[in-house]
Amino acid sequence: MKVLHITNIKGGGIGTFLKILEKKGEVIWEMKKQKEPPLSISEVDIIILHGYIPNFDFNPFKNKIKIYYFQGLREVSRRMILNKIEFNPYHILKLMKFKNWLKNFDYFISASFSMSNMAKKFYNVNSFVLHNPMDFELLPKIERSKSDNVLLWIGRSAWIKGLNRFLELLNLLPEYEGWILGVEGKNYNNVKFFGYVNNVYDFINRAKAVVITSYYEALPYVCLESLYYGVPVLSLKSAGGAFEILQLFNKYEWCFDNIEEMANYIRNFEIEGFRENEQFVNFFSFERFYEKFQKILQFLIKLKKLSK
Predict the structure, then answer these.
(1) Which among 91, 109, 206, 274 would be 20 to 30 A from 67, CA to CA?
(2) Which of 242, 218, 288 has its CA nearest to residue 70?
């Protein structure tokens, strides 16, 4: 069974995931860097697309099993994510175009149950759920050096990451410092911008807690990496995948409906470290992921044969 993973470029969370797959022997076609696929099309049984590639030519793969891997939302407007009615025809047409593009695929996989629910809600497709793995060998060994008054936020300036909510949290907690990675800005009051840094893990290990305030996330690696180091992760429930991860390990007290609720928790409770490391490592191991991944693909091959 030959599988070809296809993406436009290995960036962000998709890039992290694909680099893990590539290290473990999976074949990746990064189209912006490679004009031709690294495998002969005749060799390929299954193609899996990661990310939206509008002009992708499906014709050479018409007899192959085609899977789309949902790693996040695509072509969904801010109003849609906020559960408001979208009136702008531009956003409506973008979503319709993406939904039509998805008709090229036979099956779908989602990186979390949360993402699977969103795929059904916005695109009306059903998907298998397969939580992305981690490569723990790639993570540096760093001693925990906690600062009791530092809250850490990692992301980019896109509105969906919810930086405005983190700034609102810091306004409610003037006794804390808020460190922001991935976004450039001017320091003020208790807010410090660090922009892009080479070693996020050092910052993670120095924080009292990592805070996720996104309006939506499918399966944020920053949440996984923080928990691996035993660092608490406080998340709004709207963050989807982060909320799901915390529930998997019974960390319900780290999940909040709004910023005020999160601020009250930080103010009034001692936040203990994450101690379920062995259980966590087993759940997000590549070996566990790959076993499930193979079973899903084998099942889909049988299903495709039955449908002919």
Answers:
(1) 91
(2) 218
Q: How far apart are CA 193 and CA 185, in angstroms?
A: 5
Residue 308, pLDDT score: 65
What does the pLDDT read at residue 306? 82
Which residues are paired to 212 by β-bridges? Answer: 235
Show contacts of 278-281: CB within 8 Å, 24+ apart.
279/249, 280/227, 280/228, 280/249, 281/136, 281/228
Measured over the CA atoms of residue 247, residue 250, residue 251 and residue 255, the dihedral's sign is positive
Q: Distances from the Cα of 57 to the Cαs of 6, 123, 228, 308, in angstroms?
A: 12, 21, 40, 23
Q: How many CA atoms lie within 13 A of 33 on its CB side?
A: 9
Report the relative pairing of strands 3-7 and 150-154 from DSSP bridges. unpaired
Report the CATH number that the domain containing residue 147 is assigned in CATH: 3.40.50.2000
Q: 217 and 291 share a domain?
A: no
- Quote the domain boundaries for residue 205: 136-283
- Both tokens of 203, joined, read 């910052």
Domain count for the chain, please give it: 2
Ranges of residues in the chain with a pLDDT under 70 are 308
pLDDT tens for each residue of 124-147: 999 999 999 999 888 899 888 888
Please check whether residues 82 and 176 belong to one and the same domain: no
Nearest to 190 by CA among 202, 178, 180: 178
